[in-house]
Amino acid sequence: MTAMVLTGHGGIEQLDYRTDVPTPRPGPGEVLVRVTATAKNNTDRKAREGLYPTQDNDEVTSFQMGGKATLTFPRIQGADVVGRVAAVGDGVSPERLGERGLLDFNIYPDARRTLNLIPDYYGHGADGGYADYIAVPADQFHHVSNADLDDAQLATLGMCSYQTALHMLTSARVKVGERILVTGASGGVGTALIQLCRTIGAIPYALSQADKTEALLTLGAEAVFDRSNMQGFTERVLAATGGYPMDAVMDLVGGESTNRFIDTMIVDMHKRNDNPRLSIAGASGGNVSELLWTKMYLYQVQLFGVSHGTREEADQLMEWIRSGELKPVLHATFKLSDLHRAETYFMNRASNYLGKIVIVPDSQWAEHGAPHALENAG
After folding, report:
1. Same domain as 201, residue 149
2. Residues 301 and 342 placed together within one structural domain of the fold
């Protein structure tokens, strides 16, 4: 089969387009999926560049909470996979042949439904969707028949962004009516957070570029704050909320901004009904933040590190996708053979960039990629 193969840590030159990769075979309890669309995530780049240190901030490594590295080379990346069942392994009903589905991208360490402490995923610890075919557990390839969602659109609703976003909210006990600050709001997890807040009845406030304001308001943000001007940020937040603090912050930025985000939650503790809560699932603004610990413990700020999510959350998301409560935010599609250009475009996002890039195998391009090609975006 054809696949884009990651050959080592480094730049896009480590991505090698090959036409002679062996097609996987489905094992017991697995399905073989003919891939039609795979959404791109920032974790693809970070894993490729080795930007997941847990001890030395300058270490070039992949994350390895299980005690050893599971990203080995060569590896096929791509986590949010959509396609059709092309073959089934032992123990899987042949009635699933031809079924369209969306992959729950996790490689779960065990069968627990509400806990996932050693997160790994397809495209990292096992081959992913930047290929013609992928073999995955049958119970993690969820049937989605919605005729109003084409395959590229469905891929944008993938678990890498949406399950991470939902786990950020559930970890922080976000409730109906609470005011939630979403940083990095124009990316995949950010747009998922805005939709999920509205789905559960919370009120999302977005931090992003000013030129994304209209699109984020349409998506569901109550207000949008310009990230290019952080002076007087807490005062601008209070003006937008009518003087109420943020109940929780969903932080995808980190760096020196973390303190400002915390300040939006602790301006008037009399108006709070729960602890200030900070969920972190990204560090686009910097991997190191300096925090005043007296501020953290005297104001009883609760901190939640979030990576991926649980089987239970994946099932909930699938229900919302099938019911139409979650809407795709698709920016553009690229051919798999053009992944180098897609990576470069992703890192140098144009001003009108909002939502997800989706990668489509060349063999599937005419049907599933061409209608949403970059040339048609905007």
Report:
1. no
2. no
The answer to whether 205 touches 182, Cβ cutoff 8 Å, is yes
Query: What are the residue ranges of helices labelled H in the chain?
Result: 42-49, 151-155, 159-171, 188-200, 213-219, 233-241, 258-263, 293-298, 311-323, 339-347
Assign residue 51 the CATH number of its domain: 3.90.180.10
Could you state, in chain order, the average pLDDT of each consecutive group of 10 residues for the chain (378 residues)?
96 97 98 98 90 68 74 96 98 98 97 94 97 98 97 97 97 98 94 98 96 96 94 96 98 90 97 97 84 96 94 98 96 97 87 86 98 83
DSSP 136-152: EEGGGEEE---TTS-HH
Helix (H), strand (E) counts: the chain: 10, 16
CA 136 and chain centroid, separation? 19
Assess whether 267 and 335 both reside in one domain: no
The total domain count for the chain is: 2
Q: If you write DSSP's letter for every residue of 151-166 in order, what string do you get?
A: HHHHHTT-HHHHHHHH
* Phi (first) and psi of residue 54, to 5 degrees: -120, -5
Structure tokens given for 173: 């006990």
Has residue 177 been placed in a domain? yes
If asked whether residues 84 and 149 sit together in one domain, one would say yes
